[in-house]
Amino acid sequence: MDYRIKAPSCGAVRLSLRLPASKSISNRALVLKALSSSTYDICNLSDSDDTRVMEEAFYSGASDINTGAAGTAMRFMTAFLSQKEGVWTLQGSERMKNRPIKLLADALNSLGARIEYMERDGYPPLRIWGKALRGGEVRLSGGVSSQYISALLMVAPMMEEGLTVHMEGQVISAPYISLTVQLMKHFGAEVERRGNTLKVSRGGYRPAPFTVEPDWSAASYWYAVAALSPGAEIGLEGLCKESLQGDAAVAGLFACLGVETEYTAGGVRLRHTGARAGRMEYDFVNEPDLAQTFATTCAGLNVTFRFTGLQSLRIKETDRMEALRAELRRLGYVIDASRESILEWNGERCTTESERPFINTYEDHRMAMAFAPLSLVCPAGIVIADPEVVTKSYPAFWNDMRKAGFEIIQSPE
Q1: pLDDT of the chain along its 413 residues, tens only?
Q2: Catalytic residue selected from 289, 364, 386, 400
Q3: Of 99, 238, 265, 407, whose CB has the highest number of CB atoms within 10 Å?
Q4: Distance separating alpha carbons of residues 56 and 356, to the nearest angstrom
Q5: How far apart are the first and last CA of the chain?
Q6: Contact 155/35 with Cβ under 8 angstroms?
Q7: What is the pLDDT of residue 222?
C-alpha cells in the first residue's frame, strides 16, 4: 500500500492537536513498573507498536517473546529477562537479526547473566536463562546506542552488588540516559552520577503512580510542517518546556528555520516566521532521532546543512544515513552521506525522479513522517511507500495530517 499526499488546498496550515504519548518514556515506565511490582496504572501510556510489544511481553506470560521491529523492546527485554527466573527466547524481525546486541549481552554475562546467541554471534535471536545477577562494575563505550546503557541501569537495583557503569569516550544520546535515571529515581532507585560514571545501589524499586508526557519527537514533524507552510499556526497540546525528553530541543533548533515557539498553559503554539538561516550546522549526538526531520526540512527550505554526531543512525530501523541520501535524491537533492557520522548538503541539485516522487520508507517510521511534510514544496505531491510504518511510534499521524488539510489518497493494492 502507498499513500499519495498533496499539500492543503486551503493555504496555511492551522490546527491544534494532541500528540501521542512518548514511546521512550512509556517503554521505560513499563520496565520500572514490572521491576517495582507496582499495581498503579501508567497514565497516558503510548499506543505505539513498540509499547504494545513491551506490554505483551510483560503480561502474556509467554516464554518465547518476539519484539518484532522494536529495538528498544529487544534491548530492554534482554536485560529484564536476564534477571527474571526462567528460560526465555527473545527474537524479532529479519531486520532485528542484523541489529547488534553483543555489547549488551556480553556486559550482562559479565555481571552473572547467561545469554546465548541462537543463530549469529552478537545478534538476536537470544536464549536467556534468567536468574539473580551478581552485579559489580562494567565498562561500556558511550559511542553506541544509549539503550544498552539504559537497559543495564534499569535492572541494576535488582543486582546483588548493585552496579557501577563506566561510560568510555564520547557519550551519544546522553539525554536518554538522563531520562532513564530520572525515571528510576521516581520509582525509588538510588543513582549517583559523577562525570561518565553511574553508580546504582542495590535495593530495588517502590511502586509509584506515573503519567507519560506527550512525545517531543512526534512534535518535530509538525515543526517541519510549520516551517514549510507560510502563515502556519499549529497548537500542540500537553507539551511542556520542563520536559524529561532530550528531543524538546527541537523548539530552539527550529527557530533558525523560521518557526517561533510560544509556551502556553495548555502546551505550545508554533508560528511560521520565515526568518530562516541560509545554512544550518549542528551536532545531533544528543538528539539523533531529529536528524531525519531536519535534513528533509532544510532541503525543502533550500537551507544547506552539515549535521554531525549521527553514528547511531547506521544501526536504527534502517541505515538512516543511506536512506536519507537515496530518498532525497529522488526529490532532486544531492546529499553526502559517505562519512560515518556526518550528513551534509552543499546545495547541489539533480533532476527529480518524477513529477510526483516515490519515497521508500525502509520499514522505518521516521522516514515516512520526516518526508511527508515535503509534499508542501512538491506541487504534484509525493507518494509514501508502506505508510503504515508510522504505527511504530505515532499511529494517528495520517489522521492528524488529514485534520491539517493534507489530501491523502490510498493507492490500489
Answers
A1: 899 999 999 889 999 999 999 999 999 999 999 999 999 999 999 999 999 999 998 888 889 999 998 889 999 999 999 999 999 999 999 989 998 999 999 999 999 999 999 999 999 999 999 999 999 999 998 887 889 999 999 999 999 999 999 999 888 889 999 999 999 999 999 999 999 999 999 999 999 999 999 999 999 999 999 999 999 999 999 999 999 999 999 999 999 999 999 999 999 999 999 999 999 999 999 999 999 999 999 999 999 999 999 988 876 777 898 999 999 999 999 999 998 899 999 999 999 888 889 999 999 999 999 999 999 999 999 999 999 999 999 999 999 999 999 999 997 65
A2: 289
A3: 99
A4: 40
A5: 6
A6: yes
A7: 98
Long-range contacts of 27-31 (CB under 8 A, 24+ apart): 27/51, 27/54, 27/72, 27/73, 27/76, 28/76, 28/150, 28/154, 28/179, 28/180, 28/183, 29/183, 29/210, 29/212, 30/54, 30/55, 30/58, 31/76, 31/80, 31/154
- 264: amino acid identity, one letter: T
- 3-state DSSP call for residue 345? strand
Residue owning grid cell 549521527? 310
How far apart are the C-alpha atoms of 10 and 143, rounded to whole Å? 46
Superfamily assignment of 23-201 in CATH? Enolpyruvate transferase domain (3.65.10.10)
289 as an active site residue: the answer is yes
Count Cα neighbours of 200 within 13 Å in the Cβ-side half-sphere: 30
**pTM value?**
0.93
Cβ-in-10-Å burial (0-12, 13-18, 19+) of 89 comes to middle
Task: Report the alpha-carbon distance of residue 381 to residue 407 in Å, rounded.
Answer: 9
Q: Which of 289, 268, 267, 396 is nearest to 259 (CA)?
A: 268
Three-state secondary structure call for residue 67: coil
Question: What count of Cα atoms within 13 Å lies in the side-chain half-sphere of residue 129?
Answer: 5
C-alpha cell at 295: 535534513
Within the chain, all domains assigned CATH 3.65.10.10 are found at 2-20+215-410, 23-201
Cell numbers at 357, concatenated: 516522487
Whether the upstream peptide bond of residue 125 has omega within 30° of 0, thus cis, is yes
CATH code for 2-20+215-410? 3.65.10.10
Backbone angles phi, psi at 24, to 5 degrees: -60, -45
